[in-house]
Amino acid sequence: MTSLPFQPLSPLDGRYRPAVAPLSEHLSEAGLNRARVEVEVEWIIALTDRSLFDTSPLPEESKLALRALYLAFGQQEIDWLAEREAVTRHDVKAVEYLVRDRLSSLGLDAIAELTHFGCTSEDINSLAYALTVKRAALEVWLPALRAVIDRVAALADEHRDAAMLSRTHGQPATPTTMGKELAVFAGRLRRVADQVAASEFLGKFSGATGTWSAHVAAAPEVAWPTVAREFVESLGLGFNPLTTQIESHDWQVELYDRIRHAGGILHNLATDVWTYISLGYFTQIPVAGATGSSTMPHKINPIRFENAEANLEIAGALLASLSTTLVTSRLQRDLTDSSTQRNIGVAFGHSLLALDNLHRGLGEISLAEDALLADLDANWEVLGEAIQTVVRAEVVAGRSRISDPYALLKELTRGRRVGAEDLAAFVQTLEIGDDAKARLLALTPATYTGLATELY
């Protein structure tokens, strides 16, 4: 058997690449290296802007030329770094050499030693990961989540008045509306989306063990914590002044737990919509040319929701693993986080793929209101709650002497199907006021939805 040509091992880089490609801009190896170059370049500019070590601020044209190394980062730089890393066996060192090479080509050799000045690799990585994760989360993942929320909210508004039988514990229960049930998901997801939007993205920039020791040795008169803070904040990040060699990753743990929380809610949405399709409440809109089953031509399988469900489970497991691993570092530094963080993009990728499936799936369903109404009409016994509650109120008001209204309705309805005529006849026998009796006789399962239409 001949060997296959090189193929992507991960489906995210294979069949699902179109859905997750925007993440590659940030969370790929190339995206990480571009951010590393950005940090190294901006640190040189920050040092020279302060005229440290008798330097002068760079002319604007030199700054633009130097920044082009990351602003125009492309295949040439990717290949250069790969070749250099094969020799250095150190990814951040390869980045340092790339920046030095650019300085030389620009005639800026005099400030070459400012490259990576006072830095440990984790100073660069800390900021690079914060930049890439922030951009991926806020510019790619969060808009995709909000698009799903908007679609759920639009369906909730469209079906605001669509009465529906509830199923608590899988059993017929007090009616609701499809709109209100979808609005619950939209509300839950908005809350987590807002938490993600408000996330901190922290970085450290304090040297080998977080003490600025080398900095102070080189220039004891400089307020290095202030310089570091201003530099980190200039990148749009938060500053963590108290660290070991690494930034403690707690902000990452918090973010991944929030994204995993969102994934749990989305998983709940996917399984509920799948169940509504199974019940016939939603029909799926046929897509021209698509095949539902390889052998049963009539079928339209709810694959969007099933794929979303599976990918959310994978994403959730990876995010949980990231959170568990990143919260711990042995003493001042170990390398477990290095390997772990290389899978951030995989976790985001499966989550983004799920969002894509949900967004598509929610756009390919249509509410079968006749099915909802038929289900309601077949379960008049759910009005037992309304009847016994009204009777209780009448007893308190002195208009009824019925004892234990709950037991009375339990005997009538539990484990039995009761039709409209049966309930009407029963209500007529009740010792309650005329107004209460009239309200109950006018009530149907389809109108017993309380304030469902007013809750959102």
TrEMBL record:
Keywords per UniProt: Lyase, Purine biosynthesis
Pathway as given in its UniProt record: Purine metabolism; AMP biosynthesis via de novo pathway; AMP from IMP: step 2/2; Purine metabolism; IMP biosynthesis via de novo pathway; 5-amino-1-(5-phospho-D-ribosyl)imidazole-4-carboxamide from 5-amino-1-(5-phospho-D-ribosyl)imidazole-4-carboxylate: step 2/2
Lyase found in the keyword field: yes
InterPro entries: Fumarase/histidase_N (IPR024083), Fumarate_lyase_CS (IPR020557), Fumarate_lyase_fam (IPR000362), Fumarate_lyase_N (IPR022761), L-Aspartase-like (IPR008948), PurB_bact (IPR047136), PurB_C (IPR013539)
SUPFAM superfamilies: L-aspartase-like
Taxonomic lineage of the native organism: Bacteria, Bacillati, Actinomycetota, Actinomycetes, Micrococcales
Family annotation (PROSITE patterns): FUMARATE_LYASES
Fumarate lyase N-terminal domain span: 14-308
Organism of derivation: Microbacterium limosum
PANTHER family linked: ADENYLOSUCCINATE LYASE (PTHR43411:SF1)
UniProt protein name: Adenylosuccinate lyase
EC number: 4.3.2.2
Residues covered by the Adenylosuccinate lyase PurB C-terminal domain: 329-449
GO biological process: IMP biosynthetic process
Purpose of the protein: Catalyzes two reactions in de novo purine nucleotide biosynthesis. Catalyzes the breakdown of 5-aminoimidazole- (N-succinylocarboxamide) ribotide (SAICAR or 2-[5-amino-1-(5-phospho-beta-D-ribosyl)imidazole-4-carboxamido]succinate) to 5-aminoimidazole-4-carboxamide ribotide (AICAR or 5-amino-1-(5-phospho-beta-D-ribosyl)imidazole-4-carboxamide) and fumarate, and of adenylosuccinate (ADS or N(6)-(1,2-dicarboxyethyl)-AMP) to adenosine monophosphate (AMP) and fumarate.
EC top class named in words: lyase
GO molecular function, one term: N6-(1,2-dicarboxyethyl)AMP AMP-lyase (fumarate-forming) activity
